[in-house]
From TrEMBL:
The keyword Transferase applies. InterPro entries: Nse1, Nse1_RING_C4HC3-type, WH-like_DNA-bd_sf, Znf_RING/FYVE/PHD. Keywords: DNA damage, DNA recombination, DNA repair, Metal-binding, Nucleus, Transferase, Ubl conjugation pathway, Zinc, Zinc-finger. It is found in: Nucleus. Belongs to the NSE1 family. Pfam families: SMC_Nse1, zf-RING-like. This is Non-structural maintenance of chromosomes element 1 homolog.
């Protein structure tokens, strides 16, 4: 029952199923591998019998088959569910180019605006949200006025950006929703029950270098606050997790990584700046929902408009949530 001797029809069937999905978890692989092994063997194999070892052997065969085609299989842990997600990754072409093969220039520009909102607008030392609620999402529908001279990291979008940029008008709400729906189906974004969008594990895997190139400052001093930050334990990007209480410190930790991380340490202090780690400074949705401003706004719901500017308010409100630090102090030391 170990299909790792030579590449066979079962391996091909597995790879086909994997490619059709783009990503796979052990749980998703079980029924697929059970069907393959049943077809190959004399007796039926139940999904329950599929172990991580069997899955691994199919993964490594697939990986070998893909390597000559400039594809690789990489995996990452989901930051919240802790499930390991495997994805087929193109090792040569930029993921934005891949997305561009399936979507129009308008749609790509819209996705770029969504990413900019997630990683620039709603990701500051004061508030590292890195997700969009439905209101902010809808603000990304329209293209900004052409006059806006934002020198967007042009090389990241594809070659035809300069001339097509002129005509971009944006998407209607319904078009934007349809586009996001397909991005969720393609495995790039996740949509929470509250209608908030964030990047999926697959996107974090595939867009890793793109995100760093696009949103981090390569000339920043070591230790200077950067938009894209990594888990101190697993070294993957953190968009949901905990942060050092010191606003300008870059140390972040996934919730799912923290137990193992602190177990090896004598004191619960930031490993860089030694600020006590209270586990109450957040990255992701809780950076918003665990604030005073959010609680205040909850009381005022009912009028839709109230919550609209919440993130802006938190970013501007010096005495909110993480309030014990001094304000905006850009002057170092
Ligand atoms: Zn981690
Ligand atoms: Zn720190």
């Amino acid at each position: 029952m170990d299909g790792d001797d030579e590449y066979n029809d079962g391996n091909r069937a597995f790879l086909q199923a994997f490619m059709a999905r783009g990503t796979m978890t052990l749980r998703e692989a079980k029924p697929i591998l059970a069907a393959i092994l049943t077809a190959e063997g004399d007796e039926p194999v139940d999904a329950m019998q599929i172990t991580q070892d069997i899955f691994d052997s199919y993964l490594s065969a697939a990986q070998e088959a893909l390597s000559s085609l400039d594809y690789d299989i990489r995996s990452a842990m989901h930051q919240v569910t802790k499930k390991r997600v495997y994805a087929i990754v193109n090792t040569t072409s930029d993921p934005m180019t891949q997305i561009a093969t399936l979507h129009s220039a308008e749609e790509i520009a819209f996705v770029k605006r969504v990413l900019d909102a997630m990683f620039e607008k709603y990701n500051s030392p004061r508030l590292e949200a890195m997700f969009l609620d439905s209101m902010q999402f809808h603000q990304c529908c329209r293209a900004p006025p052409a006059a806006r001279s934002q020198p967007a990291p042009a090389e990241d979008m594809d070659e035809d950006t300069p001339q097509s940029q002129q005509q971009l008008r944006g998407l209607k709400n319904s078009e934007a929703e349809a586009m996001m729906q397909s991005m969720v189906e393609e495995g790039w974004f996740e949509r929470s029950n509250e209608g908030c969008y964030s990047l999926s594990p697959r996107a974090l895997l595939e867009l890793r270098s793109w995100l760093i190139e696009t949103y981090n400052d390569p000339d920043a001093e070591p230790g200077e606050w950067q938009r894209i930050k990594f888990c101190e334990a697993c070294k993957e990007i953190v968009t949901v997790g905990q942060r050092c209480a010191e606003r300008d410190c870059n140390v972040r930790l996934h919730d799912i990584c923290e137990d193992a991380f602190w177990r090896t340490r004598r004191e619960k202090k930031c490993p860089k700046c030694e600020t006590p780690w209270d586990g109450k400074h957040y990255v992701g949705e809780r950076a918003v929902t665990e604030t005073e401003a959010y609680r205040r706004s909850k009381g005022h719901r009912g009028r839709g408009g109230r919550s609209s500017g919440l993130m802006e308010q938190i970013m501007a409100d010096p005495e909110d949530g993480e309030g014990d630090e001094e304000e905006e102090g850009l002057e170092d030391e």
